[in-house]
């Protein structure tokens, strides 16, 4: 079996870059009460969470995530567990990390993290959600729906698209996930899981072309 490619084909670049830019919320980060690392297959989320902690952006971290089919092989003990271990290796003190190990989707991440903080009587007025780059918009919309009173900003590793693809090691996987998250912006708002987000026509057109080219494995 051949190794996955990390080269973004020229004929796909325009559409993929359109979706990539759309999902980046371009938030200006400010110090917040808690940094929440959202579980996924991407260990870069934990890396970025550790970096922001060391920059003084928050005094407390919650890593949240059990497993999904896409993460079970890579993180057999659970996403939050592996994230915590990675952050410890990056010099984050153990006593500033909380773990939430039951969440299996973004809604769970927000709901279960909020419950965890409430159980500890921690007053939280602001959070930074740290996620994969293309998960920012969906995470934001979900948090605004499920935790409307909190001030939320979003962050990811500050990588260019090609750098991110290289870090994941599989261009098809990245495109497929981008397409899937774009669909979820509409589907999850319609189901009441998230607040509605505007989808520009150029984004809809790029999404449609990529689905027609077969990047449909992550559609719901």
TrEMBL record:
Domain of life according to the entry: Bacteria
Protein name: YdcF family protein
InterPro entries according to UniProt: Cell_Envelope_Assoc (IPR051599), DUF218 (IPR003848), Rossmann-like_a/b/a_fold (IPR014729)
Source organism (scientific name): Amycolatopsis pigmentata
Pfam families in UniProt: DUF218 (PF02698)
Domain spans labelled DUF218: 45-153
């Amino acid at each position: 079996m051949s190794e996955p490619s990390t080269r973004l084909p020229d004929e796909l670049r325009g559409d993929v870059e359109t979706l990539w830019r759309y999902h980046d919320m371009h938030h200006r980060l400010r110090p917040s009460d808690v940094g929440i690392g959202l579980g996924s297959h991407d260990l870069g989320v934990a890396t970025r969470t550790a970096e922001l902690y060391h920059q003084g952006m928050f005094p407390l971290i919650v890593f949240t995530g059990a497993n999904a089919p896409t993460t079970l092989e890579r993180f057999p003990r659970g996403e939050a567990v592996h994230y915590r271990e990675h952050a410890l290796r990056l010099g984050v003190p153990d006593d500033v990390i909380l773990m939430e190990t039951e969440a299996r989707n973004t809604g769970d991440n927000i709901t279960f993290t909020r419950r965890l903080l409430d159980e500890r009587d921690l007053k939280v007025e602001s959070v930074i959600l740290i996620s994969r780059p293309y998960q920012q918009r969906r995470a934001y919309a979900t948090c605004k729906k499920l935790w409307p009173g909190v001030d939320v900003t979003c962050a990811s590793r500050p990588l260019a698209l090609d750098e991110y693809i290289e870090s994941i090691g599989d261009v098809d996987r990245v495109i497929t996930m981008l397409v899937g998250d774009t669909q979820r912006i509409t589907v999850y708002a319609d189901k009441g899981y998230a607040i509605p987000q505007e989808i520009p026509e150029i984004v809809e057109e790029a999404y449609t072309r990529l689905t027609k080219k077969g990047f449909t494995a992550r559609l719901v």
